[in-house]
Amino acid sequence: MGEKTFTMRQGFQHSLEELQQNILRMGSIVEQTIAKSVECLARQDARMAAEVVEGDVVVDEMELKIEEQCLKLIATQQPMAKDLRKIAAGFKIITDLERMADYSVDIARVAQRIMETGQPLIKPLIDIPRMAELSQLMVKQALDAYVREDTELAYTVARADDQIDMLHNQVFRELLVFMMEDPKTITQATYLLFVSRYLERIADHATNIAEEAIYLATGERKELND
């Protein structure tokens, strides 16, 4: 009986590890999607923009698959304490990842609209690609913090969110100057402001994942998004 219980426990732990690996795979795809969405904007690449929009279905399918995996674990294993928190955190994390992918699609659609106008970019993109790189890093670090139960890394993600907010404000001020100096730039500058806002929201969702990592490690809820 003891050996049977041990084997069941091993099987459950294996299922939890498989759940985390699936969440990491979904996170990796979302990281790539964030990068591609800003790259297609910077390059004015219509084909890449279409790939981002069409690829969203993959993330949606992964969310459903992982959600079913979580439900099955709860129904069949009746987890307690930290195991239950691990699964509950997984539920919330995949929702955050799916929203990040949606914002990436929004960025790709903005790129498509700008390309449709035939107007070149009003300025080289510097801060927006920087925001995308930081957002990608935040997603990776937040997921690593979740898997390793690393609270220090989770707080690092929260500090990076402050940098994103600073860059967003910088982009806002710069584009405002463009609009004031030349009304012909207003439409595109407004689109670029949307992109900056979407990246700022992606960073907020990465911070949500960091909160889940802290909850998993300590059992305490921390509000990291100011």
UniProtKB/TrEMBL annotation:
<dbReference type="InterPro" id="IPR026022">
    <property type="entry name" value="PhoU_dom"/>
</dbReference>
<comment type="subunit">
    <text>Homodimer.</text>
</comment>
<dbReference type="GO" id="GO:0005737">
    <property type="term" value="C:cytoplasm"/>
</dbReference>
<keyword id="KW-0963">Cytoplasm</keyword>
<keyword id="KW-0592">Phosphate transport</keyword>
<dbReference type="Pfam" id="PF01895">
    <property type="entry name" value="PhoU"/>
</dbReference>
<dbReference type="GO" id="GO:0045936">
    <property type="term" value="P:negative regulation of phosphate metabolic process"/>
</dbReference>
<feature type="domain" description="PhoU">
    <location>
        <begin position="23"/>
        <end position="110"/>
    </location>
</feature>
<dbReference type="InterPro" id="IPR028366">
    <property type="entry name" value="PhoU"/>
</dbReference>
<dbReference type="GO" id="GO:0006817">
    <property type="term" value="P:phosphate ion transport"/>
</dbReference>
<dbReference type="GO" id="GO:0030643">
    <property type="term" value="P:intracellular phosphate ion homeostasis"/>
</dbReference>
<protein>
    <recommendedName>
        <fullName>Phosphate-specific transport system accessory protein PhoU</fullName>
    </recommendedName>
</protein>
<feature type="domain" description="PhoU">
    <location>
        <begin position="128"/>
        <end position="212"/>
    </location>
</feature>
<comment type="function">
    <text>Plays a role in the regulation of phosphate uptake.</text>
</comment>
<dbReference type="InterPro" id="IPR038078">
    <property type="entry name" value="PhoU-like_sf"/>
</dbReference>
<comment type="similarity">
    <text>Belongs to the PhoU family.</text>
</comment>
<keyword id="KW-0813">Transport</keyword>
